[in-house]
Amino acid sequence: MTRSEHLRNLLALGVLGLVLALLPPALNVYLRSFALFTMMYVVLALSWNIISGFTGYTSFGHVIFYGIGAYACAILVADHGWHWLPTLLVAAGVAAAVGVALGYPVLRLKGPYFAIAMLGAAEGVRVVATVWDGLTHGGLGISLPSVENSIATYYAMLGLMLITILVAYAVGHSRFGIRLNAIREDEVAAEALGINATAYKLAAFALSAVFPAVAGGIQAYKVLYIDPPSVFFVQITIAMALMSMLGGKGTVIGPIVGAVLLYTAQELTWVNFPTAHLIAYGLFIVIVARFMPRGLVGFAIDRGWARKGMVH
Amino acid sequence: MRDLHKAFGGVRAVDGCSFAVPRGRISGLIGPNGSGKTTTFNLLTGLAVPDAGQVLHRGENIAGRKPYEIFRRGITRTFQITRIFREMTVFENMLSATGLRVPDRVARERAEALIAFVNLGSLRGEYGGRLSYGQQKLLEFARALMTDPDLILLDEPAAGVNRTLLQQLLEHIHHLQERGKTILIVEHDMNVIMNHCERIFVLDHGVKIAEGPPAEIQRDERVIDAYFGRRRR
Asked: Please, what sign has the CA dihedral across residues B111, B116, B23, B17?
């Protein structure tokens, strides 16, 4: 990609950031909250995409990092009287550490074995959060001191989303990203070409853990109450995966588009058809999987509307 | 390599094999199916860990090292069945093989030059998986050259490649040798082996049964036996 194309994309991101930054006064509380959660799902889908789209390790336990971030924020704010912003850094640090510690054993597994191991790990972490009363207050959950925070959390999520997009963009268009792609395509060949797959996978995994953790922290401070079933909720992982796949995993724009479309669709159907929305959601997924297996971006590429590859 | 051993279960794929690949020359490694050629390549490149023995490269024993460590020491290979990255473009395939310490601009220039070298310029932005088999072979060959290796191992470069493309490939190989590279080829096509290699090693049942220049190998009784079975006298 040429320098001018990068500049154009950065400019587009800047405009998007500016519009979103000017928006809150024009929005009511519901719409502000809707925008915040849309941005959160952009963060989650893009992060999931780093390990699962770029690197090909489909994670069905990514909610682990989201939940850990939520707990880091809630515990430090509610039990230790911290200001909420610095807790987000702690959330990021803990998630990265857990990512490396967990990734070292599970990233030796491939394909469905890795997916199942992550699913199991997520359930395990949820159980630990439930039984470790001393730290997490167990099944009772944690209530945070109530304050008006819809503006502050909105801007925090906006900032996080812009950073996540920038990082995903930088990774996707770099030789680091190409090497992650190489691991996805053929790990043996990648190693034979000088790529230390273990180190690259761990780096990608830790990177993909950091942003969901911060998102979880912001979300905890936004909703002011968390408990294990709500923040270690398997459907959050599934949402990350579906959004990436709908938009086009392994690309940068794909998960963004997928998150916005799917979260909006979910919200609309949920409002109008409280029970039918899951059916609509399911049908949507079947249609995408059947007719656009490589997502919207893949669909566009196959029709020649977009170039193949990430680095040109 | 010295006294190399590798067994898979009860099968002794490489059973006490020793040979020295002459520097700056094109050599061939031949033998009937299952004689241990590809296993030997895997042992040399770290994809398999030898049970015993040494692989000496520039005085260092690299046996048992990880594939990426061996690659970074200047040894590169292609595969019998090509292993190009199918959902990555030709250009991305090329870039995947460079050390990150090489500046981006240098890596790109090198990739462009090598793509031109193997005449894949018009397919630069196409997915690897969309290339014909012969083109994939050329891509894999070019990709193996991205880091300017000094020992290049080619596993059946001629298999499935049409004559015209094969001629190109062989020209490239000679061109590399002229630049001082060492090349070792596993190949079933005896025309390729006999006309292009200066020294040939013959394996059978994991043991080296002969070594020498092409003319000598063609007359060697043990080699003929290994390929065609013992002649009745």
From this structure: positive
